[in-house]
Each structure stands twice: as C-alpha cells, then as structure tokens.
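Tutorial, part two.
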Amino acid sequence: MFKTLISTLLDGPVVKTKYIQYPYRYLPRLFDSNIVFLYLLFPMSCVIYNQLTYKMKPLKTIVCVFLFTIPMTLYEHWLEKNTNLVRFGKGWNSFYTFSVLSFTFWIVRIFIGCIRLLDKNRASKIFEPQINKGYC
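Running the prediction step on this input gives:
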C-alpha cells in the first residue's frame, strides 16, 4: 500500500506535466497513468524485492534493487521506442525512469525496515519479564 502511495505521488505530477504519457490505458477518463503497472505490477515487484532482501545487509539491498529496476527500465524504453503505449516528453528519458524506480524501491525498503524494527522493539517489550520493585 505504501508503494502505491509513493508511486501515485511521484507519477501523478510527471504525467500531468506530460513528461510521460500513456496514450492507451485502462479507464482513460479516470486515470492518466497506466493503472496496471502503477497499482498491480509495481507494488508486487516491490513486495518481491522486500521479501528477497529481508535478511540482506544494507549494501546488498542497494545493489539488489538494480536486478529489478534495470529490466523494468529497459522494458519501458523498448515500449517507448516500439509501441504507442508509453511516450516520453519534455526531456524525459530512461535514466529518469531508472532513477525514480530505484528511489521508490529504496524508500519503501527503508519504510518496511523501520516497521520491522518498531515491531521487533514492541514485541520484545511485551515479552520482557516484569520485576516488581519494592513489593514482596
């Protein structure tokens, strides 16, 4: 859900200012974006990334994100060059796509890491033995 929120906040202005356009999309009267990618494929890939990197050290998680963003960027580049599903405008290019994808994966990974840390701290306090001081 957090991934979808971040994606919507970043994608909305980019699409509204016509840096990226999606000429063919589902529900065009309601959405300017590609809702299949934005609300289904992108969040699912983020879940897979977070599960894959759950026990990894931070440096490995930073490098591992490229296993997801490079293929996605190359595919979008191919779609832009060979189909009419994606259209870049106003100087937008694949490097910007790569940067935004990587950034959102890392932001969500940090957020999930914080949630896990808070949950771990909360769980340790619940099961911590209570010592009654001064009462016998």
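The longest strand covers residues 20-21. In part three we will examine how such features are distributed along the chain.
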